[in-house]
Structure formats: structure tokens, C-alpha cells
Design brief:
- Residues 180-310 form the GST C-terminal domain.
- Belongs to the GST superfamily. Omega family.
- The active site is at residues 50, 203.
- GO terms for molecular function: glutathione dehydrogenase (ascorbate) activity; glutathione transferase activity.
- The chain starts with 41 loop residues before the first strand and ends in a 22-residue tail after the last helix.
- A four-stranded mixed beta sheet has the order 2-1-3-4, sandwiched between helices.
- Helices cover 40% and strands 5% of the residues.
- With 332 residues, the chain is mainly alpha-helical.
- Helix 6 runs antiparallel to helix 8.
- It has a domain at 181-291: Up-down Bundle (Glutathione S-transferase Yfyf (Class Pi), Chain A, domain 2).
- It has 13 helices and four strands.
Length: 332
């Protein structure tokens, strides 16, 4: 069945369990490779709502790559044809406020700066005319070869961490290593269960269509959050090695969405981060308030609007909740 006919907003399999799609484009940017690091060569397609795309925006800023890789940002409403952009004509006008829930414009959503496409799906079909899966973000596009390099966030984070080091002038950004060799084993082990039980666990809970599928997801999620809470109980600022690593980036993009979205929308209501996980909450606050790469890339308007408006099977009336009153509580 072609992607034109698939119900791309259907998330659960016939057993009622959420199954995440395997990414299709797996090339990397690397020196002396097919896709070599060059300033201005690559374009990043993201959603400010998506936790997977958010990872890449954080690393792009941490590594000082904002002048190297430009960005197009989809509208937060993901409808029947998937992610869409603001049209070039609408992009010329002032965006309607988020409270109007307009499908045409939205604050911080952009047009497709490369091709002027209306939907992300067009980019996928340009890369592969017979593409037959979901149209996901992030996407790294190569302007030189006019091809899609990678649409797997974990791999994109890895090559953004090192690929451009020889071109980066800022010393601190160049020297920042989010995946240091001496910590890789511990990072990999942590990433594995955090991905299965937390990053993906909230989705498995939210999109379950049977009680069993839901409980099979939400119980490991609860245990995993307790495990993280225990890990941070010694007062550490970072998850691994006493320094910022990709493990912090990967967990942050889920935890920052937890209270405003996952607690209600994905039925993960066994505990709020800000009230029931004090050490995890402090870790979140420190990343958000102390590091602009985290705060400046976090857009709560897009986050709330996307989930509550796009998932009609979970929220048929598309009502976006009023709270929480404070997105991230200030550090004390």
C-alpha cells in the first residue's frame, strides 16, 4: 500500500500496541565521506513539538552549528497528510496567535525554505519517489546532492557532535564531546533502557488501544522514572560522568514534555515530574535555566498544540488544556 493511501495517523498495531517505525535513511556526515562537513551545505527539517527532532536542535546549538546548518520548521498540526509547512504567501504575514489554532500559520512555524513544499511528504518523495512509510522529523537534507541524508535522530545527534569540529571556531563548542570514548559504554547502557521505557514508553502508553498494552507500557515507564530519580538522588547535575552528554539530551526532550502533555494526554498520570520526582525535577530545571541550548529550543506552544490538536483519536475535540500554569518552575 502506498503512503498516499495509508492512514499515517494510525499508531497502534492490531494487538493494540504502539510500534515505532524504523528510520529509512541512515547516511552520516563525516570527513572524507560521501556527505562531507561543509558550512551551508545541509538543511535540517524539524518540528519544535517533536522530542526526536528537538534532540538535534539542542546539539546544533550546543556545538555552535547554527550558522552551518539552517532550519525549516513544520507547523505543529500533523493532519491526514502529515507534517505541513506555512505556505510562502502566509509566511509573509504575521502569524496568527497560538490561541486561534490556525492551520495556516503558527508562531515560529516556517515555510519550506528550500523548495517551498506544502508538506514534508513531498520532500520524502523527492528523495525516494516510491517511499512507503511515515514522514518523520528530523530530516537532514544535502543541498549539494539534493538528497536526504538521515532521518534518525540518534544518529544525527552523533554526527553533529563530531563531524564539524575542524570547521568550528568557538573553542568551547569544538571541545564539547557529548559522547566521550571513556563514557560510551555507560551512555549506551543508559540510552537503551531510557529509550525503551521512557522516550518510547510514553508513546507506548499513550497510543495503546487495549488495557494490557497500556499496562505493559506504563508500568515499566513508572519503574524507569524511579530508576532515574534514584540515579540523580546524589545531587549530580548530569546523568553520566559528571558532565553533559547525549544521555542528558535524549532524556531531556521527553521529561520537558511530561507534565504539560504526557501526564494527561498519554495517561501517564502516576506522578508529575515537578511534584513527585524532586531530583529529576531539579535536573530538568538546571538544564533548562542554565543552558540556552535547552531553553531556547523548547517551545511549549508548539509542544502542547501538536499533541492535543493532532491526535484526534486521543483528544477528539482538540481542546488544548490550560495548564500547567508555569511551564518550567524557576530554580530556587
Amino acid at each position: 500500500m502506498s503512503s498516499e493511501k495509508k492512514d499515517i495517523t494510525s499508531w497502534a498495531n492490531k494487538e493494540g500496541s504502539f510500534k515505532r517505525q524504523v528510520s529509512s535513511f541512515r547516511d552520516v556526515i563525516e570527513p572524507n565521506g560521501k556527505f562531507a562537513p561543509e558550512k551551508g551545505r545541509y538543511h535540517l527539517y524539524v518540528s519544535l513539538a517533536c522530542p526526536w527532532a528537538h534532540r538535534t536542535l539542542i546539539v546544533r546549538k550546543l556545538k555552535g552549528l547554527e550558522d552551518f546548518i539552517d532550519v525549516s520548521t513544520v507547523h505543529p498540526h500533523m493532519l491526514e497528510k502529515g507534517w505541513h509547512f506555512v505556505t510562502p504567501d502566509n509566511a509573509k504575514s504575521t502569524a496568527a496567535p497560538a490561541s486561534e489554532h490556525s492551520n495556516d500559520t503558527f508562531p515560529a512555524a516556517t515555510q519550506d525554505h528550500l523548495f517551498g513544499f506544502s508538506h514534508l511528504r513531498e520532500l520524502y518523495f523527492k528523495a525516494q519517489p516510491d517511499y512507503d512509510a511515515r514522514f518523520t522529523v528530523p530530516v537532514v537534507w544535502d543541498k549539494k546532492t539534493n538528497s536526504l541524508v538521515n532521518n534518525e535522530s540518534s544518529e544525527t545527534v552523533r554526527f553533529l557532535n563530531t563531524a564539524f569540529n575542524e570547521l568550528i571556531e568557538d573553542k568551547s563548542a569544538k571541545e564539547l564531546d557529548l559522547y566521550p570514548e571513556e563514557l560510551r559504554k555507560e551512555i549506551d547502557e543508559l540510552n537503551e533502557w531510557v529509550y525503551n521505557d521512557i522516550n518510547n514508553g510514553v508513546y507506548k502508553s499513550g497510543f495503546a488501544t487495549t488495557q494490557k498494552a497500556y499496562e505493559d507500557a506504563v508500568k515499566p515507564l513508572s519503574k524507569a522514572l524511579e530508576r532515574i530519580e534514584e540515579r540523580l538522588s546524589d545531587g549530580r547535575d548530569f546523568l553520566v560522568g559528571g558532565r553533559l552528554t547525549e544521555a542528558d539530551v535524549r532524556l531531556y526532550t521527553t521529561i520537558v514534555r511530561y507534565d504539560p502533555v504526557y501526564y494527561v494526554h498519554f495517561k501517564c498520570n502516576f506522578g508529575l515530574i515537578r511534584h513527585d520526582y524532586p531530583h529529576l525535577h531539579k535536573w530538568l530545571q538546571k538544564l533548562y535555566w542554565n543552558n540556552p541550548a535547552f531553553k531556547d529550543t523548547t517551545n511549549f506552544e508548539h509542544i502542547k498544540e501538536h499533541y492535543y490538536y493532532s491526535h484526534k483519536q486521543l483528544n477528539p475535540n482538540r481542546i488544548v488544556p490550560y495548564g500547567p500554569n508555569v511551564d518550567i518552575e524557576p530554580l530556587k
